[in-house]
Design brief:
Elements lengths: L1 H10 L10 H7 L6 E4 L6 H8 L3 E6 L2 H13 L6 E5 L13 E7 L5 H13 L1 E12 L20 H7 L4 E13 L5 E12 L4
Parallel strand pairs: 1-2, 1-4, 2-3, 4-5
Antiparallel strand pairs: 5-7, 6-7
Helix pairs in contact: 1-4
């Protein structure tokens, strides 16, 4: 998969746009804290936006090209001191804040079924007590639509899966909706997505 993403980010800068995911921008504005983690962050659009709003961000991705773009965009935005990039896959990353993060954001981080639950549990482990997880991805009705996402149905999300994967969280929001994506050339058009917001117990 690393080769796939390196090729995509090499051939199309801003593959998913340069603006943040709208749900991330809206939900992060409600959050308190200062440290955020963005796994599978691609070219860094969400990381740069968070840093521009005062957050210290760790961003990681398996794509060397994607993380190089993230570093370049961060510097251009004047927030390179707030964004740390890491080339790592989801199971190699070593968190920069041992006490945990205030927020973890997962955006279209789809994986093979055997890895999905382990990755989601790992994402919860990166949160500090009272920390918040924000996720958006494609739901199972996305298959066959042309707006992006995996072509393997087992890599798409549904409500029951996410409830089980994140059963350690206090779920504040879980919804599957139809929307229109406008996020770079690879996320365009009518789409079926799912969103979840949840927090870890404070103690």
């Amino acid at each position: 998969m690393k080769g796939h993403w390196d090729k995509r980010y090499s051939s199309t800068e801003g593959a998913y746009g340069r603006l943040p995911n709208p749900f991330w921008a809206k939900e992060l504005a409600k959050c308190r804290g200062k440290n955020a983690l963005l796994p599978c962050e691609g070219e860094g659009r969400n990381a740069v936006w968070a840093a521009k709003h005062g957050w210290s961000v760790d961003a990681f991705d398996s794509s060397t090209v994607g993380m190089a773009t993230c570093a370049r965009w961060s510097k251009a935005a004047g927030v390179d001191k707030l964004v740390k990039t890491h080339v790592a896959d989801a199971f190699e990353f070593q968190q920069g804040f041992p006490q945990g993060y205030d927020v973890v954001g997962l955006f279209y981080a789809h994986m093979p079924e055997a890895q999905r639950k382990l990755f989601h549990r790992k994402a919860v482990s990166w949160l500090k007590p009272g920390g918040k997880l924000i996720l958006e991805g494609f739901n199972s009705r996305q298959l066959g639509l042309k707006s992006g996402g995996p072509k393997d149905a087992t890599m798409l999300f549904n409500e029951a899966q996410l409830e089980e994967d994140f059963d350690g969280l206090i779920i504040e929001r879980l919804e599957a909706i139809q929307t229109t994506l406008d996020e770079g050339p690879f996320h365009q058009g009518e789409a079926e997505i799912i969103r979840i917001v949840g927090s870890t117990p404070k103690s």
